[in-house]
TrEMBL record:
Stated name of the protein: Sushi domain-containing protein
Lineage of origin: Eukaryota, Metazoa, Spiralia, Lophotrochozoa, Annelida
Keywords assigned by UniProt, alphabetized: Disulfide bond, Glycoprotein, Repeat, Sushi
Record organism: Capitella teleta (Polychaete worm)
Bias type Basic residues, positions: 275-284
Stretches assigned to the Sushi domain: 11-77
Amino acid sequence: MWSFPDSYCLVRCKNSPPVKNATLTDRLCAYGEHNIGKRCDSQCLPGYHVVGQGHGDRANSLECTEEGTWRGPSCVPVQCPPLSAALIGLYSCTNGRNAGSFCTIKCPKPSTTVTKLECLTSGQWSRDPGTCVFSTEPCPTLLNTRELLFNCPNPSPVGSTCSVQCVSYDRIPVLSAAPNQDTQGGDSRERIDLVTCISSQQWFPAVADIQCLDRCQEEFTSDGYCDAVNNHAHCQWDGGDCCPSTVDGGVVRPFPSQCTHECTCVDPTAEENRRRNRVRRHHGADHVRPLRNV
């Protein structure tokens, strides 16, 4: 009597791993299927670096996992330090603080000073942004509200900052909506600890744009489940748990299981949303892109 042969299913990763903003350095990885544990090396493109690493770290590696997906860090744009918040409203940049972006600073009248600088791939500006001469008029005094407490110098000239905190310790101040000015590359519902007196003698962000939300449940961040309470910018979008391109394993598991709208992929930096924005621009919805402050 013949014995039955042992049989099993072999999980493999198909095709080459995704190399967004990078090029493969191992050409064999671009063909066929790959066994679990296979590592494929790539290098971030100039102007990009491995997320969480220094600006000069471009060598990357992705691994074939037991789920048949590729896992590893992504390549993100090199960014220069934020320009002084006091300059908000006085400058425009071609691509925010990303490497290769050109910025123009125009000091307020009667000054005619114009400064031009570039964000280099080293993560430094090509020159010192310099300073502008501002009005000596201070920003208006900030009064505490039912939700918010402010700690400000008196008076508060241009460039000065006020700390912001919520009356309740269990809550934190965040932007309730995207403000009128650009938020140094941030996005809505971003945590705000300071407001700055800018050149127009106004506070930025505006107090009307700040609200208090419950603190993030950090023990449930990056745990493999998309928690609605953490699916916000100030909670780093639940550590990536709510988007297929950022969650470990590529499968989103909402918690609770009936969570729908609040557990959708809303991280603007996730590949799904960047792809959607590219398609929208391709069809003309965003054909002309105005210059924005950094």
